[in-house]
Amino acid sequence: MNDILLEKMASFNGTIDYATYMETVLYHEKGYYQNGQPKIGKQGDFYTSSSVHPVFAWVFADYFEQYCSNHYLPFRICELGGGTGAFAEQVLDYVKQQKPDRYKELAYEFVEISAEHKKEAQTRLSDHNNVSFHTSFADLQQNGPYRGIIFSNELLDALPVQVVQKKDNELFEVMVSFDKENGLYEKLEPLRDERVTEWLNWSGLRVPEGHRVEIPLNMMKWMDEIANCLREGLLVTVDYGYKNDELLQPELRNGTLRGYYKHQMVDNPLSHPGKMDLTTHIHFDALMEKGKEKGFQTEYFGKQREFLLEHGLFQHLVEHDNRDPFSEVSRLNRAIRSFASPGGISEAFHVLVLKK
């Protein structure tokens, strides 16, 4: 991976911005999302809510179905960044079992950039003939305007970002460079990217002295693409992130860009290039404001645990006298408690629902 990065740097006078670095180490054909190694679960680097228990997907499945029914929309779900297909399988199996008539009407579009993940998902979902597979959102856009649900879970946090830092009352961009002795290192250069300056002015975010902030230009582009495709329905985003006032708290002075390697958080994002996941906390204020400009209304914004509780999580609890802690009902009830408990797995995540 270092050879690929060096080739990139050679085209830019020896340094690249963080967005280019992330794009390369995550999405290049030899990057993290394309290297064929397990990403999710015990053998990977992180867990998602879908890997805890299917009840997470069941709640969303009911929410999607009810919204489409109540608003006379086709029962159509597009999942962006679907990974190995776990969430999709849980939704499809649940709807097929609980609402067989609606299952016959369901069309599920599965979008995944990783060839290995897409292949695994195709195998996992082979029993469902109402699924179509895409390698990019652009593939889906070719089918014309979309009506229905667009959903993503922990997708936006992995989009490449620029990084800026304020030092001596001046804004610098944090760049990535390389030397033979120390390998990859960060380098501050005066901020020259007009797109970053324009975004900072647009967002109203004022970077404090000594503070570092990620600039989500790729997320803005993503939102433009969604808005151009979605004619009517919901954009449902599940992810971790902050609003502007939270981003500027002293405890986040070093920014939120982190790595995850073998279930360990790594502060240095330049470690293990191509072998480590990279994430940032997303800017929810910017996402909602961009949505507003594109004709969306904020239908819901809150903690994941609150969303799950408000939309029927406890309805899946099962009364039983089975003392086996590994039984299906015990696992189900334990997962529900985990999702519902303050400080549990849902505490770090937010759900944003934008309506058009």
Description:
The chain has 356 residues and is an alpha/beta fold. It has a domain at 48-151 and 218-254 and 277-349: Rossmann fold (3-Layer(aba) Sandwich). It is built from 14 helices and 17 strands. The protein has helices at residues 2-10, 18-27, 49-52, 55-70, 86-98, 100-103, 115-124, 137-141, 194-203, 217-229, 244-247, 284-293, 304-310, 328-340, and strands spanning 16-17, 76-80, 107-111, 131-134, 146-153, 162-167, 170-179, 183-190, 212-215, 230-239, 241-242, 258-261, 264-266, 277-279, 282-283, 297-303, 350-355. The strands form four sheets. The chain has a seven-stranded mixed sheet. Strands 1, 6, 7, 8 and 9 form a five-stranded antiparallel sheet that branches. A hairpin with a 3-residue loop joins strand 7 (170-179) and strand 8. Helix 4 (55-70) packs across helix 5. The longest helix is centred in the first third of the chain and has 16 residues, at 55-70. The radius of gyration is 21 Å and the shape is globular. The two termini are 42 Å apart.
Summarize the structure.
The chain has 356 residues and is an alpha/beta fold. The protein has helices at 2-10, 18-27, 49-52, 55-70, 86-98, 100-103, 115-124, 137-141, 194-203, 217-229, 244-247, 284-293, 304-310, 328-340, and strands at residues 16-17, 76-80, 107-111, 131-134, 146-153, 162-167, 170-179, 183-190, 212-215, 230-239, 241-242, 258-261, 264-266, 277-279, 282-283, 297-303, 350-355. It has a domain at 48-151 and 218-254 and 277-349: Rossmann fold (3-Layer(aba) Sandwich).
